[in-house]
Write a structure and sequence with these properties.
eleven-stranded antiparallel beta sheet; elongated; 2 domains; mainly beta
């Protein structure tokens, strides 16, 4: 019986470097009387955020040759989010308690935008009516262009050293609104028109908002700023000096002048138009 030679060429371009552990099994059987030779192989490769698997089977008889192969590859598209830390004790209110942000972050997971805020101080949901109920605004610059949209609430309510980066806001998340619809917050556009609601969850020292990208009409690349406090007053803002980012960052925009509010904003829930 002569040799059978196979030549396989395949080009693969990867935009991600991963460390892979590879397991490979090969079984060869020449004892089948109806087949001159059979071969079966499978291989698996695992990375921190990727996996690939392939299975192959071949046989040769006097009158035919058969080959079958199947491959699967998958990536975990949840990219580690940038976390923007906020200093301890940089609150700027006057009453008690002074709710103090520890950090803010955002990430796209699947088809949802997840926004997280952690605190040095205990918090409660607005619907509880407690003194440490956390309220305020989370502003989203969807097109990452400070020359479009409206001025951020952070730029209006926060002191000069906590202005954040330049934002042209397209969507405002009203954290006050959970008082009236427990477990959900309202989203508004630049004209104050109601867009929809998003679920929000609260921990002892944290909150998380989940928004479908389809509700925002966005690809998940955006900039943001926040300002929060109690029902009585704003107490903290984040990030300080820069805007927060989700996805691709356009850091060159950090020094562009942002829109300036042309009216007096009120520290309260946004009235729907």
């Amino acid at each position: 019986m002569g040799d059978i030679n196979f030549t396989i060429a395949k080009d693969v371009n990867l935009n991600k470097v991963v460390n892979l552990d590879i397991d490979k099994d090969v079984d060869v059987n020449v004892d089948n009387p109806d087949q001159l030779a059979t071969a079966e192989a499978d291989a698996e490769a695992f990375g921190e955020q990727a996996l690939a698997e392939t299975d192959a089977y071949t046989y040769v008889t006097d009158s035919e040759a058969f080959s079958y192969a199947e491959s699967t590859a998958a990536l975990d598209l949840e990219i580690e989010e940038p976390i923007f830390d906020d200093p301890l004790g940089d609150t700027f209110g006057f009453g008690s308690p002074q709710i103090d942000i520890e950090n803010v972050s955002g990430v796209v997971s699947g088809e949802e935008l997840k926004l997280t805020m952690n605190f040095f101080t205990p918090i409660s949901a607005p619907s509880t009516g407690l003194s440490d109920s956390v309220v305020g605004f989370w502003d989203l610059d969807l097109d990452q262009d400070p020359l479009t949209g409206i001025a951020s609430n952070q730029s209006f309510f926060a002191p000069p050293d906590q202005q954040g980066g330049p934002l042209g806001v397209e969507v405002v998340i009203d954290l006050f609104s959970e008082e009236f619809n427990p477990g959900f917050v309202d989203l508004f556009d630049t004209n104050g028109f109601f867009i929809g609601t998003a679920p929000i969850t609260y921990g002892t020292n944290s909150l998380e908002i989940s928004i479908p990208l389809s509700e925002l009409g966005d690809d998940g690349n955006l900039n943001y700023g926040t300002v929060i406090g109690t029902f009585n007053e704003p107490t903290d803002a984040a990030p300080n000096g820069v805007f927060g980012t989700v996805g691709e960052s356009l850091s060159s925009l950090q020094n562009i002048d942002a829109p300036i509010s042309d009216g007096a904003l009120v520290w309260a829930s946004i009235p729907a138009e």
